[in-house]
């Protein structure tokens, strides 16, 4: 915002109001001085210089944060609340307006001042998770710029201007981390050390695209469940920026920017499952989280967007959590980067058509998953866990839908399943873009606002590059 000196501006306006013949000013002739308004400081942080796996001693604390008493093994399902169908929704007004142009109802609309403070354990743990995510993004965006040379980026079709955009995205993260830290107070989680699985610029971009997707989806999953709606408001205004980052990384990868009509939301524990493995070490007094780490679900034939025929792949990923694509085995002539044909070329662009779809309904998808009990996350101090029985379904979590397909030929932590044919609405194939695939022991009916009811039935969590 431009900080005009209000006194100058007021004088100017009153002058204009009084003069009879107002001259038409087509060129500004006066230079106003613009005094900076108060600039709030960002949360102090230092750039992480060391990266790699955790090498320190075994942690003294392990497992997610919990309480001595846990009230029940899961939240029982209930019918809709008593008032769920009360409001007539007929286009008429049903109560006097509290003020002109102000319909009755709403939350946080009674005039009480917002305070932007978390109000429950649910709020704290959710915002703290989002903060862990903002910190890793801040580091990841800087790391890529330092790890790969300008030359490396150019080979991947990304210019100095594109590198600046990544730098800018890192700066956005400083703001997001500061905002969330301020809303949590002094115990807010600090920045950690990280370990990334990628070796080339194209792999890095694919990883960023997937990481920002689970960051975004992880927030959409809890945003409307927060007790503190004022906190939710500010978080919303940062997560929409993150959503744009996700889209830009897709464009950097030469993917169709937004194939979905709706962006997906996932429970916090799924986001933490996908985030924690890349955090190697946190400072001594780091605030821990309550969320569950599920075993990894590895997509063996994860579609590879770096290939011309991206669906025709096997075992071409750099990690088993996000199943980020590997560039290593792509031979000359198989890469879509420098292909010239429209529909085949996938150089960075606003958008590309893809003649060979990355995936399609009816595709056989090969899966492999871990046993629970593995150490993951900061200082290897979290333990993967599941309360589900051995999995029999794959749940495809995309847009507004959760659809189950049966696992076939279930072997020792291995199976395959068939990509479903379903639409969110007519004309909108639900399985498209960067989506989530989880294994479950039950085909429980859940929808976006109660998707976490599935958690006790989830065995493993992964990501699928369907488009
Ligand atoms: C971190 O590094 C970037 C350059 O990659 C620099 O612009 C920024 O100022 C550094 N931040 C801190 C806190 O040192
Ligand atoms: C106004 O709403 C807030 C919640 O947004 C509530 O805490 C407060 O008690 C309400 N005040 C009145 C006077 O109803
Ligand atoms: C694509 O073209 C760029 C620029 O000519 C080159 O540096 C790069 O090695 C090529 N990459 C592939 C995968 O063909
Ligand atoms: C952790 O310790 C550091 C250094 O002593 C301090 O700056 C920071 O505020 C502490 N953080 C928490 C969450 O207690
Ligand atoms: C994690 O490990 C490092 C290095 O051993 C140690 O300095 C730090 O205190 C540990 N963090 C926690 C939360 O235990
Ligand atoms: C792409 O690979 C699939 C197998 O995954 C194959 O059925 C299809 O014919 C291939 N398409 C092209 C254009 O090579
Ligand atoms: C995938 O490839 C790696 C080596 O790149 C190998 O160790 C692993 O066994 C392969 N997995 C499968 C299921 O083929
Ligand atoms: C891109 O794909 C759409 C949908 O299949 C098609 O209608 C359009 O003609 C394609 N455009 C180009 C330039 O290939
Ligand atoms: C995903 O959407 C893109 C763009 O509309 C389309 O070209 C592609 O065929 C879709 N893929 C699937 C699997 O539906
Ligand atoms: C998917 O469903 C649509 C609409 O029912 C149908 O037209 C299409 O052929 C189906 N695709 C596959 C691969 O079964
Ligand atoms: C998983 O969590 C449940 C519930 O907290 C606990 O009873 C169980 O012992 C844990 N399993 C493992 C392998 O840690
Ligand atoms: C997908 O979600 C939409 C919107 O909630 C719903 O109407 C539709 O029935 C769902 N489709 C499937 C296959 O679950």
Automatic annotation (TrEMBL):
InterPro entries (UniProt xref): Rds1
Signal peptide (from-to): 1-21
Pfam families, per database record: Ferritin_2
Keywords, comma-separated and alphabetical: Signal
Composition bias type Low complexity, residue spans: 52-62
Annotated TM spans: none
Region span, Disordered: 31-62
Keyword check for Phosphoprotein: no
Superkingdom, natural source: Eukaryota
Protein's UniProt keywords contain Signal: yes
PANTHER family listed in its UniProt record: PROTEIN RDS1
Protein's name in the database: Protein rds1
